[in-house]
Amino acid sequence: MTAEERWDRRLGEWEHRHRPLSHLVGLVVYLIVLGILNLVANAYPDSIWHGLIGFLNATVWVVVVLAVINLLADLVLDLPFPTNLPGPLLRAVAAAATAWYMVQLLFEIDRLFGLGIFLALAPLAVLFYAAIFLLVLVGESVRLFTGERRAG
Fold this sequence. Notes:
The protein is mainly alpha-helical. The chain is built from six helices and no strands. Helix 4 (87-113) runs antiparallel to helix 5 (125-146).
C-alpha cells in the first residue's frame, strides 16, 4: 500500500467518523449566519430583505429538524445490519424535506422580487419531492445491501 493510499484511507475513516458532527457544526453555522443577517436587517429597516430574513426566521425549526433527522440517519446507518434498516428511509425523508425547504425558499425569493419564474413550476414540486425521496431511498438501500457503507 502506497503512502497516498494510506492517506486516502485515513481521510475516509476520519470523514466517516465525524459525519454526524458535521451536521451539528452546519446547524450552528446556519444559526450564527442567521443571527448576523438579523442584525444587518435591523440596520436597514425598509429593505426587501426583511421578507427573506423573516422567512428564514420562521422556518428555522425546519433546519433544526433536518439536522436532527440527518444525524439520526448517520447514527442508524452505522449500526450493524439488521438494526440499520431504517437508515435509508430516514435519509430519504431528510432529502425530500431538504428539497421541500429549498423549493419553498425559491418560491419566497420569487414572491419577494416578483420574478415569476419558480411559482410557475409549483405544480411540479410534488413530483420533484417524490423523485428525490425514491432516488435516495433506492440508492441508500442498494448501498446498504451491497455492503459499500461498511467497506468505507
